[in-house]
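hey m, so remember when u said the tokens were messed up on ur end? i reran from scratch. heres the input so u can diff it against urs
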Amino acid sequence: KAVVSTQSTGEDELEWKPLLLVIPLRLGLSECNNIYIDNVKHCFEIEQSVGAVGGRPNSAFYFIGYQNDKLLYLDPHVTQESLCPDDIDLDNIPDETYHTKKVDLLPWDQLDPSIAVAFYCKTEESFDDLCQQFQDTITGGSGSLFE
């Protein structure tokens, strides 16, 4: 929570500020250990998930989910043509550059063991729910992501 001073009373009150929580993980030494895969999958299933960043050696990707034994990712290095603000007709905005025509797949066994999972909590209740989901799903057993 952030401390906010109120001018009317001069008292401090606690106010929640939206939180983007990025958690860096190491899932093995030189390769990703399969014991962690189910818990990483759980991370993508949590409502507050905004994906993960990672990749394979010499490549970085933005992971948006998974399908069976493959991660779904967008390549942040793919560039698209920009729009000139002066040339935009507000009644007919070309939005092609805001969309991608393909989502790439990466097999789990090609994933580099360094990854960061990310979550967005707009409210304190959302954060509390995230913490509860961590306890219920990804912190137990031999494949626990957090110590």
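this time it looks ok to me. The longest strand covers residues 59-67. if urs says something different then somethings off w ur setup not the seq
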